Amino acid sequence: MARALLTSGRYAVRAITRDPASGPARELATLGAEVVACDLTDAGQARRAAKGVRAGFLVTDFWSLRDDEYRVARTAAEAVLTAGAETLVHSSLPEARRRSGGALSLPHHDGKARLEEDLRGRGAPVVTVHLSTYYENWPARRLRRQSDGSLCFSLPHGDTPLPAVCVADLGGVVTALLDAGAKVHGEVVKVVGDLLPPAEYAALLTKALGVPVTYQDVPYEKFRQLPLPNAAAIADMLEFTRRHPDVAPTDVDRARTLHPGMRTFGEWLETERGSFASLL
Q1: Mean pLDDT (the chain, rounded)
Q2: Which residues pair with 92 in a beta bridge?
Q3: Helices 69-82 and 107-121 sit at what angle, rounded to 10 degrees?
Q4: Within 13 Å, how many C-alpha atoms sit on residue 125's CB side?
Q5: What DSSP character marks residue 210?
């Protein structure tokens, strides 16, 4: 996202990080960002880091913050808004507990959704983005090589279309939203590049990689028990999108209108075959 803003030439970027010496922070500094050390659990540090900003992009990582996610996100949002920002782009997720009647546990959704509701209720100058699963998940952790040389990925999703997007295309959407300013305040924008049933993703992978790729639908309860990192949380997340789909083809059209360079999964595969080298 920061790279897209810097590349546009229309924005100076201040990147707030706990560790300015980290590799990603140094890379952003090289690209021209102002990198500022800040512990967002400290309201004073957050206010100082946000001083003078015209806009902000806020995303929080539940897996590192856990029960503190809502508090930290609210502290950061308050710092940006108190600084006089004209627009805050908040990366959130759909509220899951009420929608599922308490059947699914998605704390990484609900903390973000709680802040989203708070900000909307007070009429803050905020536009919300809901992200989809990433194309990059297929080479990074989703595909598995089979004994016959083919590839397979398993998800508890049936034939329900799965929204997905390239990580880098978030930047184009956020840049467009900041350009639009007050015209998009109060909106919820789904950042989605493609919306296909899992088997169609498998067909596109087969075509691009030159080896058979199959999709295996795994029952929800069975997936929760798999010996994978965060298997239960992933199962609940995918079961939520299967039971309560809230991304439509019109959302894909809207994202592409905001960012005409938004890639479909097939278009992304044309340039990213090298990402799958370890599997081929």
Answers
A1: 94
A2: 130
A3: 30
A4: 19
A5: S
